[in-house]
Amino acid sequence: NLLPEELRKVTGSYHTRSDAAEILASISINDSKSTVMDLSCGSGKLLVASNHRINELHKTKNNALNQIFGVELMQIPSCLAVINLFLENPDVKSSTNIANSDSLHLEPDSQISMLKSNESKSKLSKVDTIIMNPPFTRQESLEKNQKDALETRFLKYNIVDKRIGLHGYFILLGNEFLKNNGTMALVLPATVLRIE
To answer: Model pTM?
Structure first.
């Protein structure tokens, strides 16, 4: 793991196991033409699994890179996502759709710069499948100005609780980027199931 344990704790960054990523992709992607997005893609493990699933459904090796989109706040993991997708597709000459940005500030149809792209900006459209392992940062660990900005940003939902962790905002964001009748597949902490 390239990120030190202390940094992972602060940012709530815990990487998805490969077997879990493959399972999540296999239960959430059912069409070889599906578009997929991970709004907290880290090093791209869920996107690589999505690439595998799309190619499996397509029955032949397919250039699925134009169907896969990822956004990651931290620079090193976002660069690793690009590398990991290229390693899976060595013969493909296209760019990847990975951005190094704070996805919590994005809206559908936002213009965003992609890494390893010749185009200056790309539009982030709604997708068929949202697949993520969002950061599990507890609300107590968020800075006050960050909490206030998130509450304002997601006020339109009328469901934001002051106790919501960072993963809750990613769920709301994922819903914004999901097409009608789309599928959302998430890794979530067990605390989501607790009732007080």
So the answer is: 0.85
